[in-house]
Amino acid sequence: MDFFTQVLHLVGSGAAAFITARNMRDPLTRPNTLASLQLAESGSVPYLEALRDRASAEGDTWLAEKLTCHANDERRHGQIFANALKQLNKQVIDFKKAPQAAEKSGESKRNPFFDAYFEGYSQGELKPEAIDWIAFLASTYILELDASKDFVRMANVLPEDEPVSAKLKKGILSVASDETGHAAYLREALERRLMVREVDAVIDSWRTRKVNAILAMVSSFIQKSSKSPSLVQDGVPSELSATPEPALAA
Question: What value does the mean pLDDT take over residues 121-146?
């Protein structure tokens, strides 16, 4: 990664971290932020489980076990954010029961960040049964590594003298710890397949892709003068009201 790209990485990552931390700190934007995190974390579970099945079928039991743990962690993360919404008497909108929300979601289904991040890859090439293992491992390594830092920043803006926020802070820090562990196994998986210099090169390539993706996301945000659609509604899901909250990692 050249010097200019490194500067863009620092500036872009700093700006993104500031925005997410601000949105988590602000009581008005916190519910939507929690909802987006719940959807992202829970939504990755089926994909990871499909990759686990593929790794197992290919005889890579080590990777299959790591992907199983990864999927379980993401499922727990979704529950943490769902329970945080519950504390605010909110829940993620059921898009099946909210046609207008589903329509808005459909309109914004194409994500400028991921469009740029995976530029050159077709939808078919990104499916779990088809994605190149190196592409998956390196691209996800970058996302998990950066997410671990972003979650710490989000947690650190929450006050500790208010019980609900203090509990959420603990939960987010546990998520950050898990993301660090995910990044570690993903890099190890790359090192099992490539020479060290090749690992560095492919990670550098995906780091550059992320810089470009952040720029595309910022550009799209500036062009869209309207606010993002709400992802939450009042009330608590029945399954959460009857289920104990997940234990937090130490």
Answer: 97
